[in-house]
Amino acid sequence: MTPPPPSESDQRRPSQYEVVVQGIQEMIVSGEIASGDRLPVESILATRFAVSRSSLREGVRALVAMGILETRQGSGTTVTSLDPGLLLKPLEFWAGIQAGTSSRDLHNVRQALEVEAAAVAALRRTDEDIERLKAVLAEAEPAIQALDHEGAMAADLEFHLSLARISRNPVLVALLEALSRPTLRMRLWQSIHLGGRIAITHQEHLAILNAVVAGDPRGAHAAMQTHLAQVAVVLRDTPDSR
C-alpha cells in the first residue's frame, strides 16, 4: 500500500535565513538585480522576506560564501560577477572527497567533457593557442626527466585546462577545473608507483597536441579518449581513489 503524501505540517519549513537565500537568488534570476548591483537596504529586504535583520545578515553571509554576493567596506553588499569559476568552487570540494565508485563516476563525466573539448580545440585553435599548448608541454619535459612528479602533474593539469580554454566557454573551463583538480592526488600516486607512466602520459599529450595542430577534430577526440581511458584504468586499480 502506497503511504499517503506528507501533510503540510510534516514538511519542514525553510528557516528564515533559507528564505533570504532563496529570495535573493530569485531576485537575481528574475533580473530584478544583476551583477554589480547593490542590494536594497536591510530594512527593505527584512520587510520583503518577513525575517529579522539577524536572519537577513545570516542569509547574506551564506550568499557571500557561495560567491553570489560580496561585501566591501564603504560600498555595501553587491552581486558578484557570477563567474562560473567562482560559483562552481563548492563542486571542486565535493569532487575532492569522493572515492571508489563516485570517483569513477566523476571521471566519466570529465571524460565526456574533455573528449569534446579536444575536438572543439582542433577546430577553433589559433596560432597563439597552439604556441601556448606547446609551451606547456615543453615546460613539462624537465620535470619528467627529473622525475619531479608534482611538477609534471601541474603541467598535466595546465595542458588539459589550456585545451578547454580554446573553446572560449567559461562554464566548460570551470567544470573541468572542478573535476580535474581532485584527481591530481590519484595521478600523482599513479606516476610514482607505475613505472614509466609519467613518460607515457607525456606521449599521449603530444598525440593530442599533434591532432589539434593538424586541425583534426576526430583525431583529437580519439587521442583524448585513449589518454583518459588509461586514467580510468588506474582509477579502478588505485587504492582509495581520492
From TrEMBL:
GO molecular function: DNA binding; DNA-binding transcription factor activity
Keywords, sorted A to Z: DNA-binding, Transcription, Transcription regulation
The organism's place on the tree of life at top rank: Bacteria
Positions of the HTH gntR-type domain: 14-82
Protein name: FadR family transcriptional regulator
